[in-house]
Amino acid sequence: MEFQPTSSFTFVLFGGTGDLSMRKILPALYEAHRAGMLAASGKIVAVARHEEDRDGYLRWVNEHVKAHVAKSGVDENAWSSFVDRIEYVKLDLGKAEDFVKLRDAMQDLPGTRVFYLATGPSLFVPICRALASVDLNENARIVLEKPLGYDLRSSNAINDAVGEIFAEEQIYRIDHYLGKEPVQNLLALRFGNALFEPLWRREWVESIQITIAEELGVEARGDFYDNTGALRDMVQNHLLQLLSIVAMEPPHSMDSDSVRDEKLRVLRALKQIDPRDISKVAVRGQYHAGVIRGTSVPAYATEPGVKTDSATETFVALKVEIENWRWAGVPFFLRTGKRLADRVAEIVVNFRAVPHSALGSSALRPGANRLVIRLQPNETIRLYCLAKKPGEGMNLSSVHLDLAFDQFFKEGQMEAYQRLLLDVIHGRLALFVRRDEQEAAWKWVEPILNEWAASGKPKPYAAGTWGPAAASAMLAQHDTCWLEEEN
Ligand code: BG6
Question: Is 92 annotated as a binding-site member?
């Protein structure tokens, strides 16, 4: 594999003993280390309250992080040299003197400084201010995890306060969906080939579906999730980001602002939903008890941390329109939910059927011309077309051309976090969300949030199904259905 190892860096990880550090960030750094992608002199400084000293922290890392590393298992030599990179600072966010301690610990450490805030959003501003109080904000990069705020107002408040301390080019707002390999490949497919461009528009596309379905419930995050819901947790960020990648105009280059400018144009062109029409274009659901792959699972309202009369949605389906020449009138159906029948994330582009079929009615079947970009599991891009069935007569059947990444490219696959962390160290902003994009996304979802907060409750659906029937009815009004309903 060709790659450019990073230049030297000091990567400071706030929330060093948190869930995200354990499951995603430290494993991703380990993978980058093992693959030789990190500068030899680069250091990781974990910051947390719980462990007393470096030895204690390294014990925690050995006990908790190893289990989340590489499906292929841990390479003990690589692991031990990875652990050598880690320093630890015990820090109480409430104590200004602890930041002096952090500054002193970083004094002789090399390279670009990255501060990764793997903490709750309520700590973003206090941490940034404390960093500035000891001048650690200069020549540094800061990474903010989602959720960044609860609505437009609170997100603006965080962005304003962080913006007083860090310039926009120093701020990396992470949306891990943008780091997934097939999302990158969608960009390559669209902008590296002339083939799709003429077809990628209203004249040839009938509708687009974007689904992120999960089998998992809220796990140990009931408290957080009950105050958040699927619209904030998944739609405002991941789904709208995917939508903007699918629908954007070809950018002038892949530099940060060219890509982000084009995504922003899409977000600003989303048709505002009239509050009176919300029930026609937005469905919310909440899972009840059910069975997933033979195992009974409890209702959302009985999960730990969730209010028994909770009106929080665990499922959302939306019909979205984009008001520009390329997409006017093409419905984009977005859907996400917890405790659904399957774990799948995919983008389905349904092209129009032939205007007249000389080959009989089977050539007019929906789904004959279709591109499916599967983000997970089994990352693939498939182009479905019609072909003649062997034998007598002209009977058509759907076949597909397959781009199975793991077969074409045997090595070099990277987890989203690994790619994004390397981008931060390299200083590449294209896959991070700019403030104006985030604002546009909040502005668009707010009328739905407000309407749902003011009235009604989510529709129930049994865990292990595809959500409330209303989500199917919404598509039926457009003479279409969700992909899994076709057969
Ligand atoms: C996170 C959400 O951003 O994305 C979670 O907060 C969700 O609720 C997760 O489970 C899904 O990510 P992935 O990569 O597992 O599909």
Answer: yes
33 as an active site residue: the answer is no
The verdict on 352 and 397 lying in the same domain is: yes
Of 98, 122, 145, the residue at which a domain comes to its end is 145
Tell me which residue has its CA closest to atom 13 in ligand 1: 177
Ligand 1 mean position, distance from CA 360 (Å): 44
Contact 109, 102 (CB under 8 A): no
Separation between Cα atoms, residue 376 and residue 436, nearest integer Å? 29
CATH of the domain at 38: 3.40.50.720
Place of tokens 């949030």: 449
Strands 396-404 and 9-14: unpaired
Q: Are 368 and 451 in a shared domain?
A: yes
Q: How many domains does the chain have?
A: 2
Distance 228 CA to ligand 1 centre (A): 13
Decide whether any atom of ligand 1 lies within 6 Å of the 214 Cβ: yes
**Do 137 and 185 belong to one domain?**
no
Flag whether 66 is marked binding.
Answer: no
What whole-number distance in Å separates Cα of residue 371 and Cα of residue 349?
5
Q: Which of 96, 122, 145 is the last residue of a domain?
A: 145
Are 122 and 190 in a shared domain? no
**Is there a binding annotation on residue 214?**
yes
Q: How far apart are CA 405 and CA 373, in angstroms?
A: 11
pLDDT in tens, the chain (487 residues): 556 788 999 999 999 999 899 999 999 999 999 999 999 999 999 999 988 899 999 999 999 999 898 766 889 999 999 999 999 999 998 888 899 999 999 998 889 999 999 998 889 999 999 999 999 999 899 999 988 889 999 999 999 999 999 999 999 999 999 999 889 889 999 999 999 999 999 999 999 999 999 999 998 889 999 999 999 999 999 999 999 999 999 999 999 899 999 999 999 999 999 989 999 999 999 999 999 999 999 999 999 999 999 999 999 999 999 999 999 999 999 999 999 999 999 999 999 988 888 887 776 776 779 999 999 998 889 999 988 889 988 888 889 998 887 777 777 778 899 999 999 999 999 999 999 999 999 999 999 999 999 989 999 999 999 999 999 999 999 999 999 998 7
71 assigned to a ligand binding site: no
Q: Are residues 243 and 96 in the same domain?
A: no
Q: Report pTM.
A: 0.94
Annotated catalytic residue within 33, 50, 64, 238: 238
CA 238 to ligand 1 center in whole angstroms: 9
With the most atoms of ligand 1 within 8 angstroms of its CB, the residue from 238, 339, 415 to mutate is 238
Q: How far is the CA of 416 from the centre of ligand 1 (A)?
A: 12
- The range of the structural domain enclosing residue 348 comes to 178-412+435-486
Sequence-ordered alpha helix ranges (H) in 193-321:
222-226, 229-230, 240-247, 256-269, 278-281
